[in-house]
Amino acid sequence: MDLLAEYRRATMFFEAGDPTGAARLLEPIVAAEPGNSSVRQLLARAYFQSAQLSRAEEQLRELVDRDPSDHYAHHVLGRTLERLNRYSDALRHLRIAAAMHSTNDDYATALRRVESRVGGGR
Q1: Which residue spans within 55-122 are E strands per DSSP?
Q2: 66-93: pLDDT as tens digits
Q3: At what angle do helices 53-66 and 71-83 cross, to 10 degrees?
């Protein structure tokens, strides 16, 4: 299997609005190259976009465990947990992402939204 060609195909599927198709192409690549964070991140995003939230959470937790300074993985993990109605769990990751990348409006907006759901983050 030409992994690079498959990754490019998966990226095209994702960008064309077919995250499920992208995920199908990305799963064997992650299995073949479990340490490839870029592929794992795209797979997590594909799962998130296709509402396969438990699968997205699994991939994102792996990314955060490998690189705790990955603010984007923290943000998407927080958003995933938010969509799963696990607001307290989401809050931790959204706070980390916002602290690491304080100029990102999307991070700040997501953090405020979840803080309001858990009573100001108490």
Answers
A1: none
A2: 999 999 999 999 999 999 999 999 999 9
A3: 150
